[in-house]
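Lecture 7 notes: from sequence to structure.
We start with the chain below.
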Amino acid sequence: MKDAFGLPQSLLVLGGTSEIALATARRLIARRTRTVWLAGRPSPALDQAAGHLRGLGAQVHTVPFDALDPASHEETLGKVFAEGDIDMVLLAFGTLGDQATDERDPQAAVRVAQTNYTGAVSAGLVCAAALQNQGHGSLVVLSSVAAERARRANFIYGSSKAGLDTFTQGLGDALYGTGVHVMVVRPGFVRTRMTARLPEAPLATTPEAVATAIELGLRRRSETVWVPGALRVVMTVLRHLPRGVFRLLPV
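Predicted structure tokens for the same chain:
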């Protein structure tokens, strides 16, 4: 069960090699979390992540999980919940894709959409139902500021995150009053392996900063978290710019 400040004793990470997810797990283990499930495709990186968290004092399990295989989600994730209550699910898997390549290759674009949206809808609904059956828990979903408005530079990725963001907001409304807390996290540019090949954007942040914001959001039972917080104001302005003006911006 969570403590009085909303921090979990048990954590299920969907996307077990995500740098943001692992930074969050480290932070929560330093506070209260004692059991962690890392769900992802079997790989040396997943095993290494599990070993690292074990070294911090947590009991860590790895779970084979593929976002692109929704048919397996109910069985795979059901086995985790059958082991005992899960206080927090962190949905952290996703792919950035390559906009220039994906525009020329519809199948590659579809893979981005299926990973970031379809797979997340499937896993999110499975976990939401399990948390509701428990009567408690948090579902934290990593969205992106890219969900706020389509940009020429990344509209394939942004559209998939926009779908995920809207889905998560609606799921939060559906679960309101059930004891399940749903939180959308909207980071800006995060310095990770996934973004290493890209030019750094203004207000860039780190996995550790996102983890700190997630912890604060859990304590406050926030529904939406922006990282950094200044992006809330920036995106409010950009979202309301006339399309013709927005199209001319170097974004």
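Points to note: The radius of gyration is 18 Å. The longest helix spans residues 106-134.
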